Amino acid sequence: MGVFLSELTWQEAKEAFQRTQTVLIPVGSTEQHGPHLPLGADWIEADAIAKAVTERADVITTHVVPVGISEHHMDFPGTLTITREHFRNFMMDICESLIRWGAGRFIFINGHGGNVDALSEIALTLRTKYGALSAILQWYELIPLFNGQPTMQHGGYGEIALVAAAKPSLVKYDKAQLDPQKLVTENIIADLDHFTFKGGVIRTFLRTKDVSLIGSMKEQPADVEEADLKSATPEVGHKLLKSLVDLIVEFLKEFNRVDFGPTG
User: Fold this and answer.
1) CA dihedral over 233, 234, 238, 240, signed as positive or negative
2) Which of 31, 45, 218, 225 makes a 20 to 30 Å CA pair with 256?
3) Cα(81)–Cα(66) distance, rounded to whole angstroms?
4) pLDDT tens string 185-230
5) Which domains does the chain have, with CATH numbers?
Protein backbone atom coordinates (compact mmCIF):
# COMPACT_ATOMS: atom_id res chain seq x y z
CA MET A 1 0.00 0.00 0.00
CA GLY A 2 2.82 2.42 0.77
CA VAL A 3 5.63 3.77 -1.40
CA PHE A 4 9.37 4.29 -1.09
CA LEU A 5 10.28 7.90 -1.73
CA SER A 6 13.62 7.15 -3.39
CA GLU A 7 11.91 4.99 -6.01
CA LEU A 8 9.42 7.65 -7.12
CA THR A 9 9.65 10.27 -9.82
CA TRP A 10 8.88 13.79 -8.66
CA GLN A 11 5.43 13.58 -10.26
CA GLU A 12 4.73 10.34 -8.42
CA ALA A 13 5.99 11.90 -5.18
CA LYS A 14 3.57 14.80 -5.65
CA GLU A 15 0.69 12.38 -6.01
CA ALA A 16 1.83 10.36 -2.99
CA PHE A 17 1.87 13.42 -0.71
CA GLN A 18 -1.61 14.33 -1.92
CA ARG A 19 -2.77 10.89 -0.78
CA THR A 20 -1.05 10.68 2.63
CA GLN A 21 0.73 12.93 5.10
CA THR A 22 2.36 10.07 6.99
CA VAL A 23 6.09 9.51 6.47
CA LEU A 24 8.17 6.64 7.86
CA ILE A 25 11.84 7.39 8.53
CA PRO A 26 13.91 4.34 9.56
CA VAL A 27 16.94 5.31 11.65
CA GLY A 28 19.76 3.23 13.03
CA SER A 29 23.49 3.26 13.64
CA THR A 30 26.76 1.68 12.57
CA GLU A 31 28.36 0.28 15.70
CA GLN A 32 29.62 -2.92 17.26
CA HIS A 33 27.17 -5.63 18.28
CA GLY A 34 29.53 -8.21 19.68
CA PRO A 35 31.57 -10.80 17.79
CA HIS A 36 28.52 -12.31 16.11
CA LEU A 37 26.51 -9.47 14.51
CA PRO A 38 27.43 -6.87 11.88
CA LEU A 39 28.10 -3.22 12.65
CA GLY A 40 24.93 -2.31 10.77
CA ALA A 41 22.58 -4.40 12.93
CA ASP A 42 20.54 -1.43 14.18
CA TRP A 43 19.85 0.06 10.76
CA ILE A 44 19.31 -3.37 9.18
CA GLU A 45 16.59 -4.06 11.77
CA ALA A 46 14.95 -0.63 11.39
CA ASP A 47 15.03 -0.88 7.60
CA ALA A 48 13.51 -4.36 7.57
CA ILE A 49 10.66 -3.24 9.83
CA ALA A 50 9.99 -0.09 7.80
CA LYS A 51 9.95 -1.99 4.51
CA ALA A 52 7.52 -4.56 5.86
CA VAL A 53 5.23 -1.85 7.26
CA THR A 54 5.30 -0.01 3.93
CA GLU A 55 3.92 -3.09 2.21
CA ARG A 56 0.81 -2.90 4.40
CA ALA A 57 0.22 0.76 5.27
CA ASP A 58 -0.49 3.92 3.27
CA VAL A 59 2.78 5.68 4.07
CA ILE A 60 5.72 7.29 2.32
CA THR A 61 8.99 5.73 3.46
CA THR A 62 12.40 7.36 3.16
CA HIS A 63 15.76 5.70 2.79
CA VAL A 64 17.19 4.43 6.08
CA VAL A 65 19.53 6.73 8.02
CA PRO A 66 22.40 4.31 8.81
CA VAL A 67 24.59 6.37 11.17
CA GLY A 68 23.55 7.74 14.54
CA ILE A 69 24.85 8.98 17.89
CA SER A 70 27.29 6.28 18.98
CA GLU A 71 30.21 8.00 20.70
CA HIS A 72 29.94 5.59 23.64
CA HIS A 73 30.73 2.68 21.29
CA MET A 74 33.79 4.27 19.67
CA ASP A 75 36.28 2.00 21.44
CA PHE A 76 35.29 -0.75 18.98
CA PRO A 77 36.79 -0.61 15.45
CA GLY A 78 34.45 0.23 12.58
CA THR A 79 31.94 2.14 14.68
CA LEU A 80 30.77 5.42 13.16
CA THR A 81 29.27 8.33 15.06
CA ILE A 82 28.01 11.84 14.53
CA THR A 83 27.45 14.50 17.15
CA ARG A 84 24.03 14.98 18.64
CA GLU A 85 23.87 18.47 17.12
CA HIS A 86 24.69 17.23 13.62
CA PHE A 87 22.25 14.34 13.92
CA ARG A 88 19.49 16.64 15.12
CA ASN A 89 20.14 19.20 12.38
CA PHE A 90 20.35 16.55 9.66
CA MET A 91 17.12 14.90 10.71
CA MET A 92 15.36 18.27 11.03
CA ASP A 93 16.48 19.20 7.51
CA ILE A 94 14.97 15.96 6.21
CA CYS A 95 11.72 16.55 8.06
CA GLU A 96 11.44 20.18 6.96
CA SER A 97 11.98 19.10 3.35
CA LEU A 98 9.17 16.58 3.72
CA ILE A 99 6.87 19.17 5.34
CA ARG A 100 7.40 21.38 2.32
CA TRP A 101 5.85 18.66 0.14
CA GLY A 102 2.96 17.90 2.46
CA ALA A 103 4.13 15.66 5.30
CA GLY A 104 2.34 16.21 8.60
CA ARG A 105 2.94 13.01 10.56
CA PHE A 106 6.33 11.42 11.15
CA ILE A 107 7.00 7.85 12.25
CA PHE A 108 10.60 7.32 13.28
CA ILE A 109 11.44 3.61 13.23
CA ASN A 110 14.47 3.87 15.50
CA GLY A 111 16.79 0.92 15.96
CA HIS A 112 19.36 2.64 18.18
CA GLY A 113 18.65 3.89 21.69
CA GLY A 114 21.41 6.48 21.45
CA ASN A 115 19.26 8.45 18.99
CA VAL A 116 16.12 8.66 21.07
CA ASP A 117 16.79 11.86 23.04
CA ALA A 118 17.63 13.78 19.87
CA LEU A 119 14.56 12.35 18.12
CA SER A 120 12.42 13.47 21.06
CA GLU A 121 13.76 17.01 20.66
CA ILE A 122 12.97 16.85 16.94
CA ALA A 123 9.44 15.64 17.65
CA LEU A 124 8.86 18.58 19.99
CA THR A 125 10.23 21.06 17.43
CA LEU A 126 8.07 19.60 14.67
CA ARG A 127 4.99 19.88 16.86
CA THR A 128 5.76 23.37 18.13
CA LYS A 129 6.97 24.94 14.90
CA TYR A 130 4.84 23.15 12.31
CA GLY A 131 1.99 21.49 14.19
CA ALA A 132 3.21 18.11 12.90
CA LEU A 133 2.79 14.96 15.00
CA SER A 134 5.54 12.42 15.52
CA ALA A 135 5.88 8.94 16.96
CA ILE A 136 9.19 7.30 17.88
CA LEU A 137 8.92 3.52 17.64
CA GLN A 138 11.68 1.36 19.10
CA TRP A 139 10.90 -2.27 18.36
CA TYR A 140 12.33 -3.62 21.63
CA GLU A 141 9.97 -1.32 23.53
CA LEU A 142 6.98 -2.42 21.47
CA ILE A 143 7.64 -6.08 22.25
CA PRO A 144 9.79 -6.26 25.40
CA LEU A 145 9.58 -10.07 25.55
CA PHE A 146 9.44 -12.50 22.65
CA ASN A 147 9.41 -16.27 23.09
CA GLY A 148 9.96 -15.49 26.76
CA GLN A 149 13.23 -13.66 26.02
CA PRO A 150 13.94 -9.98 26.73
CA THR A 151 14.45 -8.08 23.47
CA MET A 152 16.33 -5.12 24.95
CA GLN A 153 19.75 -6.73 24.85
CA HIS A 154 22.60 -5.31 22.80
CA GLY A 155 23.34 -8.06 20.29
CA GLY A 156 20.97 -10.41 22.07
CA TYR A 157 18.20 -12.83 21.14
CA GLY A 158 15.88 -10.32 19.46
CA GLU A 159 18.58 -8.57 17.46
CA ILE A 160 20.09 -11.85 16.30
CA ALA A 161 16.67 -13.04 15.15
CA LEU A 162 15.82 -9.85 13.23
CA VAL A 163 19.22 -9.64 11.52
CA ALA A 164 18.93 -13.34 10.67
CA ALA A 165 15.54 -12.71 9.06
CA ALA A 166 16.86 -9.80 6.98
CA LYS A 167 20.43 -10.89 6.21
CA PRO A 168 21.03 -14.42 7.50
CA SER A 169 24.57 -14.70 6.15
CA LEU A 170 25.71 -11.91 8.49
CA VAL A 171 24.97 -13.76 11.74
CA LYS A 172 27.89 -15.74 13.19
CA TYR A 173 26.06 -18.13 15.49
CA ASP A 174 29.26 -19.90 16.55
CA LYS A 175 30.47 -16.64 18.15
CA ALA A 176 27.17 -15.54 19.70
CA GLN A 177 27.55 -14.44 23.31
CA LEU A 178 26.51 -11.73 25.75
CA ASP A 179 28.48 -10.22 28.57
CA PRO A 180 26.55 -10.48 31.86
CA GLN A 181 25.61 -7.38 33.76
CA LYS A 182 28.70 -5.98 35.43
CA LEU A 183 28.93 -5.95 39.22
CA VAL A 184 31.25 -2.99 39.87
CA THR A 185 31.00 -3.05 43.68
CA GLU A 186 29.32 -5.41 46.10
CA ASN A 187 26.06 -3.45 45.69
CA ILE A 188 26.22 -1.66 42.32
CA ILE A 189 25.37 -3.25 38.96
CA ALA A 190 26.43 -1.13 35.98
CA ASP A 191 24.58 -0.79 32.69
CA LEU A 192 25.24 1.71 29.92
CA ASP A 193 22.81 4.34 31.18
CA HIS A 194 22.18 3.45 34.81
CA PHE A 195 23.36 1.80 38.00
CA THR A 196 21.15 -0.63 39.85
CA PHE A 197 21.56 -0.16 43.60
CA LYS A 198 19.56 -2.17 46.11
CA GLY A 199 16.68 -2.53 43.68
CA GLY A 200 16.61 1.14 42.66
CA VAL A 201 17.83 2.85 39.50
CA ILE A 202 20.37 5.66 39.43
CA ARG A 203 20.94 7.29 36.04
CA THR A 204 24.42 7.62 34.55
CA PHE A 205 26.00 7.20 31.13
CA LEU A 206 29.07 5.08 30.47
CA ARG A 207 31.17 3.91 27.57
CA THR A 208 30.42 0.44 26.28
CA LYS A 209 33.89 -0.78 27.21
CA ASP A 210 33.11 0.11 30.85
CA VAL A 211 30.50 -2.65 30.97
CA SER A 212 31.44 -5.04 28.15
CA LEU A 213 34.71 -6.18 26.58
CA ILE A 214 33.00 -7.90 23.63
CA GLY A 215 30.42 -5.21 22.84
CA SER A 216 27.28 -7.32 23.33
CA MET A 217 25.47 -7.30 26.65
CA LYS A 218 22.28 -8.11 28.49
CA GLU A 219 21.48 -4.49 29.46
CA GLN A 220 18.62 -5.42 31.78
CA PRO A 221 17.81 -7.91 34.53
CA ALA A 222 15.82 -10.87 33.29
CA ASP A 223 13.89 -13.17 35.60
CA VAL A 224 13.66 -15.76 32.84
CA GLU A 225 15.63 -18.76 31.80
CA GLU A 226 17.94 -17.58 29.04
CA ALA A 227 17.60 -19.26 25.68
CA ASP A 228 20.53 -20.49 23.64
CA LEU A 229 21.34 -17.61 21.28
CA LYS A 230 21.64 -20.14 18.46
CA SER A 231 17.88 -20.62 18.77
CA ALA A 232 17.33 -17.05 17.44
CA THR A 233 16.94 -18.40 13.93
CA PRO A 234 15.69 -16.66 10.77
CA GLU A 235 12.33 -18.34 11.36
CA VAL A 236 12.12 -16.76 14.80
CA GLY A 237 13.13 -13.44 13.25
CA HIS A 238 10.34 -13.61 10.68
CA LYS A 239 7.80 -14.30 13.43
CA LEU A 240 9.12 -11.39 15.49
CA LEU A 241 9.06 -9.15 12.43
CA LYS A 242 5.45 -10.10 11.67
CA SER A 243 4.41 -9.41 15.26
CA LEU A 244 6.08 -6.00 15.13
CA VAL A 245 4.55 -5.09 11.78
CA ASP A 246 1.07 -6.19 12.89
CA LEU A 247 1.38 -3.97 15.95
CA ILE A 248 2.77 -0.97 14.05
CA VAL A 249 0.13 -1.17 11.30
CA GLU A 250 -2.57 -1.26 13.96
CA PHE A 251 -0.97 1.70 15.74
CA LEU A 252 -0.79 3.72 12.51
CA LYS A 253 -4.54 3.35 12.00
CA GLU A 254 -5.13 4.80 15.45
CA PHE A 255 -2.37 7.41 15.16
CA ASN A 256 -3.90 8.81 11.99
CA ARG A 257 -7.08 9.50 13.97
CA VAL A 258 -5.27 11.65 16.53
CA ASP A 259 -6.05 15.37 16.22
CA PHE A 260 -4.88 17.83 18.86
CA GLY A 261 -5.78 20.82 16.74
CA PRO A 262 -3.47 23.70 15.77
CA THR A 263 -0.54 24.78 17.94
CA GLY A 264 0.15 28.28 19.20
Assistant:
1) positive
2) 45
3) 10
4) 999 999 888 898 998 999 999 999 999 999 998 876 555 678 899 9
5) 3-177+228-255 (3.40.50.10310)
